[in-house]
Amino acid sequence: MSMFSQQTKARVLIVLLSILLLAGCGETATAHGPGTPGSIATISSGPHTHLILIPGTDLFAPYITVADAGDTISWINDDTVLHTIVTTPTQEGGAINPIQFQFVLPPGKQVSIILTVPGIYYYYCAAHAALNSQNRAVAFRSVRPYPLAMDGIIYLRGTGLSGVANATVTIASTNQFDPWLAIVNAGATVTWVNQTHRSQRIQTVPGYGPVDPTPFTLQIAPGASESLTFKTPGIYDYYATGSAGLDREWMRPVALPGVAGYPVPMEGIIAVLSGTDPGSSS
User: How wide is the angle at C-alpha 185 spanned by C-alphas 183 and 186, nearest 5°?
Assistant: First the structure.
């Protein structure tokens, strides 16, 4: 299934056709990592270039990008306002945001960086969102379209990235998954433990390519648990249907008004590493 609706795809095509007009309007991003304080990421092209658009609203499209170490990531601001893009704190021993980057992207501008350190990069627009206790982006009420947050995920594949053999995810009474982002090896078993007092139905967002390559749906009774073994590498985006809906314009889980945790959706991410990469064997 396509990652965008027909209306959004039309806008994306218009922006892609205008990308040549943005040449020379790029900005460099400041990337901070262990041993490289203040280093500047280059804007030359890597083996492949992945485009992330700000399509005239306070969102990144696509929400999830899958790339390989050494690829170029390019953001294009097709909006009328400035956006400030920054990674969340480094977590999970460096597997989440192993390199920090931040930059200001004015209207009509483009910025490109080459990411070489594999991991999960989670970033947001600091001008339109703040972080909660899980280091997740929480949308300001002024964003378009609220309650979706202006955040994005890059799954950068490569050797040396380590995951766990098995993982446990708690379905908390706060209508959140804990942890909301897990990195596991191919063949790992993930167990969801329902600590709420009602049955929980969780399911994946309709997938595209390595995003949700194998859809799943689970029904978990109150106080019970269910497990699933992940054999297909990729990144899985799922949500609880009782507390979140699916925004079909942007193909993203969206929090339902009135539920605990609003405006953050009851959404989880699982990155399943390739079993052939050193450091990610099961």
Answer: 125
Q: Domain 6-157 adopts which CATH fold? A: Immunoglobulin-like (2.60.40)
Would you say 55 and 14 are in contact if contact means Cβ atoms under 8 Å apart? no
- The one-letter code for the residue type at 266 is M
pLDDT digits (tens, 9 = 90+) for 204-235: 999 989 999 999 999 999 999 999 999 999 99
List the domain boundaries for the chain.
6-157, 164-273
CB 202 within 8 Å of CB 238: yes
CA distances from 234 to 65, 83, 114, 220 (A): 11, 29, 21, 24
The residue written with tokens 């501008």 in the block is 109
Within the chain, where are the H helices?
A: 6-17
Alpha carbons 46 and 115: distance in angstroms, whole number: 9
Identity of the residue numbered 243 = S
Please provide the CATH number assigned to the domain covering 164-273.
Answer: 2.60.40.420
* Exposure string over 97-127, b if 16+ CB within 10 A, otherwise e: bbbbbebbbeeebbbbbbbbbbbbbbbbbbb
The answer to whether the CB of 171 falls within 8 A of the CB of 194 is yes
Task: Compute CA distances 38 → 35, 117, 181, whole Å.
Answer: 10, 16, 28
Say what the pTM is.
0.84
User: Are the folds of 6-157 and 164-273 the same?
Assistant: yes
pLDDT in tens, 73-110: 999 999 999 999 999 999 998 999 999 999 999 999 99
d(CA 88, CA 91): 9
Contact 138, 129 (CB under 8 A): yes
Q: Which two tokens stand for residue 22?
A: 């943005």
